[in-house]
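We examine the record.

___
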Amino acid sequence: MSQKSLAEISIPVRHFAIQLSATRRGARLARLLAERQLDEWGEAYDAAAQVVAELASNAVLHGRVQGRDFRLTLRLHADRTLRIEVTDARGDRIPRRAESAADDAEAGRGLRIVSAYAHRWGVVEAAAHGKTVWAELGSGQRDLPGSAV
């Protein structure tokens, strides 16, 4: 195993985490708190609010276990990469991007939206049989496509 130099290690310079109820209200609150936290950090990642909304909504709709919350974590790294993580209680339900959802469909587009805004995204196993769905937005992806700078 090779050692990484300090320049290769991306250490977060800002960190925010909160447990929220696995309800529609909790998903809405996740988006609002992410927007507020990024504003406090002096950052303007317009796409982050949409990514948080999609991941939190998925946690509530597909990752909910009665009596268990979901966790939202934001990490802003020194290279300006923003990592968004949403951890839920359903590790047995791994999300997959639906290629067949129509552009005007009311369901099945969430991970397509995340893919469009994020530099990369993925899923990792979490404690207590849960999962963490994460997405990273690079410094060049701070705004939604077509937004004014």
Summary: The CA atoms of residues 20 and 100 lie 31 Å apart. The two ends are 43 Å apart (CA to CA).
